[in-house]
Each structure stands twice: as structure tokens, then as C-alpha cells.
Amino acid sequence: MKRSFIFLQGPVGPFFRMLGRSLMQEGQRVTRVNFNGGDIVDWPGPGTIILREKAKDWPGFLVELICGNEVTDLITYGDCRPHLRAGTTIARSMGVRCHVFEQGYIRPDFITLEDSGVNGHSLLPKSPEWYIDLAGRLPRDTPVRPARSSLKTVTGHTIRYYSAKYAAQMFFPCFRNHRPYSERENTCRWALKIVGMKSDIKRDLEFQRQFLASSRRFFLFCLQLDADYQIRFHSPFANILSAIQTVLTSFSRNSRPGVNLLVKSHPMELWPSQLEAFTLNLARRLGIEKRVFFTSGGSLPAYIKASLGMVTVNSTAGLASLDHSRPTIVLGKAVYDIPGITHGGGLDGYWDDPVPPDQDLYSAFRRVLIHKTQINGNFDTREGMQLALQTAIQRLLGREDIYTGGNQDWPLRLEYATKPLRRPSKRFPRLNDMKESSSICRQHNSIQ
Fold it and tell me: I need a surface site. Which of 265, 305, 334, 380 has the fewest CB within 10 A?
């Protein structure tokens, strides 16, 4: 059966354009919505629609687009940006199937593709028995081909995207950046990071050598990006600073005197020196300055192997910790936060009695996670994208429903519309030549 796909914003780079062309070669109808100049650079030409409407008009625009194109499927990258969150909520309410791409849960070598939502919105169940039963019925694992990202390629895609976005911003006055800081500030910070990268790597590796040579007993606390929706949307913390304060306060009150805490910033963090100053100043006020250390780099596997366990809000680094059988505690929402896999006794009790993962259960979970949500490849390199395309097409055109018993908090409320949406027949003249599906529109008008 011929399907009709709408693409919203994708990962920076050409992956979504390549995926759309592959779907068209399979005989499917494909439309892309471009929200800014960077989107146009990544996916120019026929089959694209430029959105200049205000945020409050976005729901009506999308309803018209879905009705006119008789859309069956919506594809996004992530599901937490305001316009994507509203878009997926509207689409599901109209019977449109949503497919969400994201960086791989298991890294490197994988990207994520799930129905309806990812991370804290994933519909994967939390039942240990479900994973044990399903893992025993899965076919043999296919070999994984290396798909390592290229920093040079990622940097090139990023510079091109944000340069076009900044240059064309006057043509998109209604578009709002989803990050809590400005594009200009972000660009300047990236430039400084790239300039100092070589010396930073050398310094971090030397710190790691000395720290591991000291044979200290330590827990590892992996930080995440402050702008990451994993923190902003899927955790109890307002920002990463409040997470640091919670962890250090608990550590100061409940850990044994001979145990240390190593705080490691995210590899893409643009303000590591500020985080380091905040962490060490807080440790000083709590009286644990001699037991708290901070690093912005180094080999994560090496730190994990030497550690007593990992504390994380909900980073995919937690899966790397579980791969090494280390006790891991999750403070937010994560797909791998399952009884028997992560420590479930609370943060205060973790420091003195951390519970390691049940390795049989974790092995079953990992097999299911890869088989059902992971695709071998990446969004960055030409080889990695080509590797991912064939499997992505197969899943988009013929995925089974595997989420019985999943996350009951999803779908989200529609946040953009406080009144029933009226059919906007004359508001968006660019869409007037599309075939209308009035029955679907009438169905959506009844949803508040």
C-alpha cells in the first residue's frame, strides 16, 4: 500500500534527505517541512514546504497538511522540541503513525528509531519478564559493522547548518530556538572549543593517567548537557547544576570516608570550566573537597572499569556502565531503568550498598533493545548513513507493534492549542491545491 510521509526537523546533515529520497524510490509520497534556513540547506528543492507561520498557527497548519496529503506517517528527530511535541501529538490524534529517530541508545555504531517516542517517552515496557521472554524468541543477532562518527564531518555539517540558519533568520521571524541560549553564543563557544581541543585532550588524558594510577576507590558521576531535553523534560532537575547539588549533598552525607566521587562533564559541553568551578566550590562548602574530583574528558570505558559504579540522571553512558557490570543508579527517566538492572534503593542508600545488575536480565534487555529500536549506522558519515538507510526503510514500511504494556504516560497533552482546532481552509493558501480529507479533519476538530 502506498504511504504518505511528512518529515519534520531531522539531525543536522543530509540523512533525512537521503531517507526521503529512498522512500520515494520505493514509491511512497514524501513531504518535508522546513522551519529555518538550516533546514533548507539540509533538504532543498521539490517536495519541501517552508513554514513561516507563528507558533500558535502551527497546529492548524499541520492539520491542513495532514488532511491535504492524506498523511499516514510522520517522521521526526527527537520528540521534545515544542513544535515537534505538538506535531506528534496532533498526528497521533488523527491516526497518523509517528516514527522518532534519535542518537543511539547504544553507542557508537547505532542510531535509534522508535514508534511514538524515545528516551523517557519510549513505549518499551518496564517488565523484566517481558524482556526475558522476548529475548528467548528473537532470531540470531546480526553482525554489527563499525559506524564511528567523524568529528570533522559533524563539525562541517553543524557549521553549514547554523550559518544558513543565522543568515536566513530575517526570513523566519517566528521561529524560536529550542535551546536556552542564543545561536551566536553557541557558535562562539564551539569555535573556542575547537581551537583549544588538542590541548584539552592532552590535559584530560594526563589527569586520567594520574588519577587511575592513584588507585582511588571512586564512584563516577556522568554529567549531561544543560540544554538536553533529557534533563529539561525527563528528569526532576531544572538544570544540571541542581543535579550536581543533589548528588554531592547525598554523597557528603552518606558515603564512606575513604570513597571518592569523580564528576565527568559531557564530551560536547561548552562550559566545562564553569561546571568545574561550581562543583569544586560546592564540595568545599560541604566539607568533601578532598574527595571530589572533576574532569572534562578522558576515556569513559577506562573510568568505568576502575569505578565502584555510576550515577547518572539518564545518560546513555549508563548503558556503558551496565556493559561493565557496574552498579548504576538513574535519577531521571531512562529506557534501561528496569528493576534488576539498575539500583532501585534510592540515592542515599546507593553509596554504601550499590546493587549490581542482574547480568542475565541485562543481556536479555540489551538484545531486545538492539533488535527492536537500534539501527546499525550513524547520522554523520556517508558510510554510516548508507549503512543505516536500508534497515530504516524496512522498519518504516513494515514495523510490528511491540510495545504492549508500555509507558502509559504517553501521548502528551497538546500544549499549543487550548481550543478545538478549526479547519483552516483559507489560512494557508500554499496548501489549497492539496486534496482534502474532510473526514479526518472533522475527527480532529472534536479533540480538545
Answer: 305
Structural domain for 264, as ranges: 218-307+309-353
Q: Does residue 181 sit within a domain?
A: no
Question: DSSP labels for 127-174?
Answer: -HHHHHHHHTTSPPPPPPPP----HHHHHHHHHHHHHHHHHTGGG-TT
Q: For residue 158, what pLDDT is reported?
A: 85
**pLDDT over 60 (residue 436):** no
Residue 207 inside a domain? The answer is no
pLDDT in tens, 369-427: 999 999 999 999 999 999 999 999 999 998 554 444 444 343 333 333 323 333 333 44
Give the side-chain half-sphere CA count within 13 A for 139.
4
| Strand arrangement, sheet containing 310-312 | 292-295, 260-264, 218-222, 310-312, 328-330
Strands (E), 173-217: none
Identify the pLDDT of residue 144. 94
* Integer CA distances (angstroms), 33 to 27, 182, 375, 436, in order: 20, 23, 24, 18
Q: Are residues 22 and 140 in the same domain?
A: yes
- 134 versus 177: the higher-pLDDT residue is 134
Using DSSP bridges, classify how beta strands 97-103 and 110-115 pair: parallel, antiparallel or unpaired: antiparallel
Helix (H) / strand (E) element for 83: namely: helix 82-93
Cα(33)–Cα(85) distance, integer angstroms: 15
pTM: 0.86
Are 440 and 398 part of one and the same domain?
yes
Residues 18, 138 within the same domain: yes
By the 8 A CB rule, do 295 and 266 touch?
no
Classify residue 251 by its DSSP letter.
H
- Polymer length of the chain: 448
On whether the CB atoms of residues 104 and 119 are closer than 8 A, the answer is no
pLDDT at 269: 87
Band the pLDDT of 167: cuts 50, 70, 90. confident
